[in-house]
Amino acid sequence: MRELALVLDFGGQYKELIAGAVRNLSVYSEIKPGNTPVSEIKKLNPVGIILTGGPNSVYSRDALKCDPGIFELGIPVLGICYGMQLMCRMLGGEVSPGDSGEYGRVKVTPSGKSKLLGNISGFFYALMSHRDIAARLPEGFNITAATADCTAACENNTKKLYGVQFHPETKHTSGGREIIKNFLYDICGASGDYKIDNYMESQIENIRQTVGNRKILLALSGGVDSSVCAALLSKAAPGQVTCIFVDHGFMRLNEGDEIERIFANRKLNFIRVNAQSRFLAKLKGVREPEQKRKIIGGEFIRVFEEEAGKLGNIKLLAQGTIYPDIVESGGEYGAVIKSHHNVGGLPENLDFDGLVEPLSGLFKDEVRVLGKKLGLPKYLVNRQPFPGPGLAVRIMGSVTKRKLDILRKADAIVRGELDGARNKPDQYFAVLTNTRTVGIKGDGRTYDPVIAIRAVTTDDFMTCGCAPLPHKILSRISSRITGEISSVSRVVYDITPKPPAPVEWE
């Protein structure tokens, strides 16, 4: 049985980053509710426990708490932000409001030897996000780092209890990865026995054992998760998988053809349903984004249901659910096949006996690694996030074939120019606004729509900043769009961070 680092969640936005950072260091991790009882934790037998951050104050009446017994198990515990404050308060220390909060990158100065901080000797910058502080540490704890306003790190080596006020799981903390590595290997004694190859082999065996000779149906969107799911299923159960790709007509340039080409040589039955005209007819005159999403989602279900009905007796449904989907819905990681599962929007009357979710134990970056190992092309597994309704929600206002054609060309230019950029943004695309402006082309006056460029930098997609694209690149993109697309005369660049503006416009 592989080693486990248990992440207890208290509502912090970075819980998945923590668990992902642990896995990237070759130690398997799972996220459980913060109040998981000690009896269950003993059964899991973790090598270490990490307490996450949280949005509340540990001294508030309804503050989330952990089972106090975890501090007596002898298992190393690392508290991060709220987790550190919770540990301090539950063990007899004092947590109180600070004079001023600390947010963003803050200078941290180590003080004395620290098993957790390891070889860090000089000051470093770490991501802080707190107002409360550990005003008094519990008996047996020492301060191992501080900022100008708070205790930044503390530890009780005798009881193997450690705390940091900052967030080592983010890229904004210098040396954060090394701190987590110190905890896992130097303190918990982990051997690093988790490898994605082992996950792939175990899932292939699980699929073969549970599926047997039965056939499987997968709704293939062409996104990373469903594509990797299809590749894994076809390897585990060749000839038993049918993929239905509902082409709603809102994909990026040539994307539908690329998806069909990729899966044409796999040992599966690939069905492409060309439903562009049908979806466009349903969206005629619709301008409100949420209504667009509901119409597209509902029509997808109807098309999928119609096609599934033509296939006869297929009793297993596959889905590219990944671990964050399970965590965010409040569920738990389960077996490869779950019976009577509510499949995110797909109709229950399709009468399936079970659900196959072979990726439900993986984070997104692990899914990408698995996809490469399964032989999927890099441009597919590294594909940027793309909304389910596709370009329909990157067109402001009503959706028409003409607008789709304009946006596809503009988006292809933006991606083509930025794909090879030296400092490539994390996500970038074009938006067709519903604003029209006067332009001049040749000797004539034009009155055409405006294209907006969106390019952001982020490490978690929970927050993001505007990518500082060089003017030279922006000018080249603008020149190409206005020169190659006759019905566009103006290009603008969206410089708004998140918050307040989400990555997508709709």
Question: Could you characterize the architecture of this molecule?
Answer:
By secondary structure, the protein is an alpha/beta fold. It folds into three domains: 4-187, 3-Layer(aba) Sandwich (Rossmann fold); 196-381, Rossmann fold, CATH 3.40.50; 394-494, GMP Synthetase, Chain A, domain 3 (2-Layer Sandwich), CATH 3.30.300. It has helices at residues 15-24, 38-44, 82-90, 176-187, 196-211, 224-236, 255-264, 276-283, 289-309, 323-328, 364-373, 378-381, 401-419, 471-484, and strands spanning 4-9, 28-33, 48-51, 77-80, 94-110, 124-136, 142-146, 151-156, 161-164, 216-219, 241-247, 269-274, 316-318, 337-338, 354-356, 427-441, 444-457, 465-466, 490-494. A hairpin with a 4-residue loop joins β7 (142-146) and β8. It is globular, with a radius of gyration of 26 Å.
Quick structural gist:
The protein is α/β, with parallel strands linked by helices. It has helices at 15-24, 38-44, 82-90, 176-187, 196-211, 224-236, 255-264, 276-283, 289-309, 323-328, 364-373, 378-381, 401-419, 471-484, and strands at residues 4-9, 28-33, 48-51, 77-80, 94-110, 124-136, 142-146, 151-156, 161-164, 216-219, 241-247, 269-274, 316-318, 337-338, 354-356, 427-441, 444-457, 465-466, 490-494.
* Rg, nearest Å: 26 Å
- Class of secondary structure makeup: alpha/beta
CATH superfamily of the largest domain: HUPs
In CATH terms, what is the architecture of the largest domain? 3-Layer(aba) Sandwich
What gap, in angstroms, lies between the N and C termini?
45 Å
Which fold name is given in CATH as the topology of the largest domain?
Rossmann fold
In DSSP terms, counting alpha (H) and pi (I) runs of 4 or more, how many helices?
14
Strand order of the largest sheet: 2-1-3-4-9-8-7-5-6
Low-confidence stretches: 331-345
Mass-distribution shape: globular
Main sheet overview: 9 strands, mixed
Q: Name the CATH class of the largest domain.
A: Alpha Beta
**Average pLDDT figure:** 90
